[in-house]
Design a protein that fits this description.
Keywords: Signal
Largest sheet: 18 strands, antiparallel, barrel
Order of helices and strands: HEEEEEEHEEEEEEEEEHEEHEEEEHEEE
Number of helices: 5
Helix content: under 10%
InterPro entries: Porin_put
Protein name: Outer membrane porin
CATH class: Mainly Beta
């Protein structure tokens, strides 16, 4: 952790919470008094109900054998307590409730209890342009590459400052959850309590010119592992890890996000990120003759290019992304981008069938949607012929970038260069009131997996995956 301490003032790219509400005056002070002036509280929130039907018979090796109905209610309620624009505090409550399952019930479908999702201070250093944010807040690395690596809440501190009208710096320190393929907990048994503390420093240098925005960034994270910590292995298989005790686990990411608007109404976006993670072990265990530390290494990259053409009644666009894939023997080290919390979602099929799943220390799984895949999609966004009614149409193609032998290592649902799928998705939204919207989403996805790989068999992913989602969303 010494490296973290030395770098603790050199990093954090953080997105603050935004909301709208009427102001509630809390106190009235006299001018010149300590804490004087008028304090006020803004209340903001969001409540959404989702009901969706899925028919994924035999698709992607899924356990369901018929059309299924699911529902959930998500909500958050936030409070901004402000003395002025220079001094604010935020707190936000959150709950996700699956229909038919009570809060806190055990089991695969258990929901999250009511929790405090954000609690932080936000203030300007007096007589400067330096803004400081500290506490539990949401942040992400910039752009699509950053979405693939980290997009979540964390406790930390952020400092941001402009150097001039064109260049600034946002940097800080945060404590990250121990999860994702950068630190994948694959051996969290009763005898293995995870005592690791994962710290990160990261920085972004936003550069803004006329018609061009460019955001290079860097992130370094390190875990100090306790002696009874179990095994933290990048994307290792279900048979367990090659490790005994681990001394140190580190990961680095370098990337940039850019956007060109000078050719208005054409907008071009570009993202690139490279990341690597590795461990040091106290005991030299081996995997099929390979050194354990070599087997646990993971280093890969991801890139995305987008282009949109803004028109009066709709916006046609194209999105392309490519994530590096593995060779025929991933056990000697993975060649896919390591992630912590991935929320990348260019369109629905990529999110539903992200290539590979990792398990964190809590036993929860997440898809690594950009790992080992490439995709090309044509989109018609913001289609509007009738007032208050809008539509988005996506036609996309997705394929794997890993060697076909990787399916033997990761499992039958892992997409290799021999596998692909195409999808058609139609999203509709109606603005019932200013703050209330109704949505209806349809998707049809057809896969073409190589049936001879792994243990797939003749009927693997033979049927199409279809889904429909109805939603009501109230934001204030």
């Amino acid at each position: 952790m010494k490296r973290i301490a030395l770098l603790a003032l050199v990093a954090v790219f953080v997105l603050g919470m935004a909301g709208s509400a009427s102001a509630l005056h809390l106190q009235q002070g006299e001018a010149g008094e300590a804490g004087g002036g008028t304090a006020y509280m803004n209340i903001y929130g969001h409540v959404a109900n989702y009901a969706y039907w899925e028919n994924n018979t035999d698709f992607n090796d899924n356990e369901y054998d018929s059309a299924d109905f699911f529902g959930e209610t998500d909500w958050y309620l936030g409070f901004e307590i402000a003395q002025s624009e220079n001094l604010k505090a935020f707190i936000q409550l959150y709950q996700e409730q699956d229909w038919g399952v009570g809060p806190g019930e055990a089991g695969e479908d258990s929901t999250e209890n009511l929790k405090i999702e954000h609690a932080y201070l936000d203030f300007m250093v007096p007589n400067t342009d330096i803004r400081v944010k500290g506490g539990d807040f949401g942040f992400q690395l910039p752009g699509a590459g950053g979405d693939n690596v980290f997009d979540d809440t964390a406790n930390g501190i952020q400092v941001s400052m402009p150097f001039n009208d064109m260049v600034g710096l946002t940097a800080g320190y945060a404590m990250l959850d121990q999860q994702g393929s950068a630190w994948n907990a694959t051996d969290a048994g009763d005898d293995n309590e995870f005592t690791a503390q994962t710290s990160a420093v990261y920085a972004v240098l936003p550069i803004t010119m006329d018609g061009v925005a460019f955001n290079p960034y860097f992130m370094f994270a390190e875990s100090d592992i306790g002696e009874e910590s179990g095994s933290l292995v990048p994307f290792y298989d279900e048979d367990g890890s090659p490790f005994g005790e681990i001394d140190d686990h580190t990961a680095y990411w370098y990337g940039f996000n850019g956007q060109v608007t000078m050719f208005d109404p054409i907008t071009i976006g570009a993202d690139f990120i490279y990341g690597t993670s590795s461990v040091e072990t106290k005991d030299n265990f081996t995997v099929e003759g390979e050194d354990a530390e070599d087997a646990a290494e993971r280093a890969g990259w991801f890139t995305q290019i987008t282009a949109d053409y803004k028109m009066d009644m709709f916006t046609p666009g194209v999105v392309f992304f490519y994530g590096s894939g593995d060779d025929d023997d991933p056990s000697d080290g993975s060649e896919m981008l390591p992630t912590v919390v991935s929320n990348y979602k260019p369109f629905n099929a990529v999110d539903d069938f992200g290539n590979g799943y990792v398990t964190n220390a809590d036993g929860d799984t997440q898809a690594e949607v950009g790992a080992g895949l490439w995709a090309l999609a044509f989109q018609l966004k913001d289609i509007s012929f009738i007032e208050k009614l809008s539509h988005d149409l996506t036609i996309g193609y997705v394929a794997g970038t890993s060697d076909k032998e990787a399916a033997d290592f990761y499992g039958d649902s892992f997409m290799t260069e021999e596998d692909s799928m195409w999808t058609v998705e139609f999203d509709n939204s109606y603005q019932v009131y200013e703050n209330l919207s109704a949505g209806l989403f349809f998707a049809y996805t057809k896969a073409d997996y190589d049936e001879d790989l792994g243990d797939r068999g003749d009927d693997f992913a033979d049927d199409a995956y279809t889904t429909m989602e109805a939603s009501l969303s109230y934001s204030f």
